[in-house]
Predict the structure.
Amino acid sequence: MIRRARLDRPFLLVATLLLPAFLAAVPASAQVPVAVEATAALLPERLSPWTMVEHADIVVQAVMGGLAFASLVTWTIWLAKAVELLAAKRKAKAATRRLADADSLDQAIRTIGSAATRTGPVAEMTQAATLELGRSAHLSADGIKERLAIQLSRIEARAGRAMSRGTGILATIGSTAPFVGLFGTVWGIMNAFIGISQTKTTSLAVVAPGIAEALLATAIGLVAAIPAVIIYNVFSRSIAGYRALLADASGEVLQHVSRDLERSRLPLLTGRGAAERMAAE
């Protein structure tokens, strides 16, 4: 028994020396779960586009809101301008067809004025032709046609400008929205690095939400810019086609005026020829 007690004394001594160190090491090892829990508390429960917008910086939120508003403006202009352009094209086609089917300017004015085409650029062209013929009743035919061509070109240009109103906003959104989104991305990434320096950790779980929020700003910028560019190009081609229709209508009006002037001069020429024959006899 005395020998066993002597053998147990070294083990008791070692245990007495290691126990304080072990107890001191336990709180240090327990700090890792606590740090992980603190870091996890700062992260959103579920990473989605809506949560990214909610947890984004105020500057990034402002950028996203501005880009979303720009996208809304784009689709509003598309809807309003598409309806306006479709109605204007239909009216211009119908009026041009009535001009081509008429035998004189007076008949064309009557047919255009008695239908839904009584308003619009083509109706203005016929009215301008009538007004110019009344003002220049005793002037040369060449001067009448020259002045009328100038007036018709002004009506055509004015109608084209009116139809193009609003499309410049699409060009502005399409050219600037990606850069605005890029600004939000740069600002968000900068805040993400600031968060890394404050938390003193490079864990991807800490960095990923901030970077995702920043990249979302670029995505929204592209969503706003791409449709704006496509819609602007479509409207540019459609407006060019509309102006071509007005050019056809202008040509029809000039043809009617030229024929009417020739008809009005024909009796004068016939009477003058008869008088010359009578004088010769």
